[in-house]
Amino acid sequence: MSEVAQASNAIVGWTIAVGGIAPAIAIGLIGSKAVEAIGRNPEAAAKIQNNLILGFAFAEAIAIYALVVALILKFV
Amino acid sequence: MSDIINYRMALNISISAEPIAHLFGLTITNSLLTGWIVTAVLASSVYLFSRQIKEKGAPSRLQSLIEMIIEGLFGMVESIAGNAKARRFFPLVGTLFIFILFSNWSGLLPGLANIGFQGIHNGHEAFIPYWRAPTADINTTLALGLITMIMVQVYGYKYLGLKYFKKFFDFSNPINFFVGILELISDLSKVISFTFRLFGNIIAGEILLLVMAMLVPVLGTTPFIALEIFVGFIQALVFMMLASVFINMATLGHGDEHHE
Question: ipTM of this predicted complex?
Fold first, then answer.
């Protein structure tokens, strides 16, 4: 494997590793706050769950962008 | 080093859908073929089911089950948009949900990904399967995202009339003009976000399953297939809910955005 290929593999790894940090923190915060809110007010669980899934989707999208960039760097 | 190259060839990961046939100059990819099959199966089961719906008397077991699923989905859209609007949106977003759900799950059917032929793809020889989940192809998800965002504009026009487009083109003062440009960019970026969210999740799942099958050959993939069934469901749900939130936001005029 040439040095260029090794460097490119390292960059791919770093892309998804760094790109995963922020969404991981975001999803953790969203989940913890949602569980807290359901604990305070169990009757609102259905409404909170809807917003929880939407929040997850937006946070997770960032990780998916990083993943798509990594996949394009690796395979295209 | 040659081991790594062999693994990569054996892994056979392709980000783009492979063409399997040409019809009157139109390239037919494996994901397009699978999309047609999914559509045909869904359409024919809808046709067969709709012939035996009973409006009076005790419904059959199948009818009870399907009514339960549809009512659950409708309840979700209703909690976002309210009853009157949900009745208008639900045919669109509910169809999107069902099509995306079965497209996602079609990629998990065991064995089908192994039926194919050796062909040339992107300049080198590779194994080309006949079966590929439609949502694991960026063209499908782009089409779904475009349909959704165009329907958002259509519903906005339907509810607010020409006043809706004032959101984008407002010449009353420079600040509003600039905000209009931002609104345009925001709607364009929603198409991209719809596209990459669905595509990224499904392709990531397929690659995860392939890598796991390489690492632990026999039972290694079983828990991950369960995970992918869940992810496919959640992504279809997220697509439906985001679509109904965006449509609902477009139908609200300026100033009354804070009403429930």
Answer: 0.71
pTM over 0.80: yes
Give the residue numbers in A contacting B (CB under 8 Å), as ranges: 1, 46-47, 50, 53-54, 56-57, 60-61, 64-65, 67-68, 71-72, 75-76
- C-alpha dihedral sign at A21, A27, A30, A36: negative
Q: How far is the C-alpha of B240 from the C-alpha of B243, rounded, in Å? A: 5
How far apart CA B103 and CA B97 sit, in angstroms, is: 10
Q: What is the CATH number of the domain that holds A17?
A: 1.20.20.10
Overall number of domains in chain A: 1
Query: pLDDT tens, position by position, for chain B (260 residues)?
Result: 444 444 444 566 777 788 887 888 888 888 899 999 999 999 999 999 888 877 777 778 888 888 899 999 999 888 888 888 889 889 999 999 999 999 999 988 877 777 777 777 766 777 788 888 899 888 999 999 999 999 999 999 988 888 888 888 888 888 888 888 888 998 898 998 899 889 988 988 888 888 888 888 778 788 888 889 988 998 999 899 999 999 998 888 765 544 44
CA distance A40 to chain B (A): 21
Neighbours of B136 (CB within 10 A): 28
For residue A8, the enclosing domain spans 3-75
- Closest chain B residue to the Cα of A73, Cα to Cα: B15
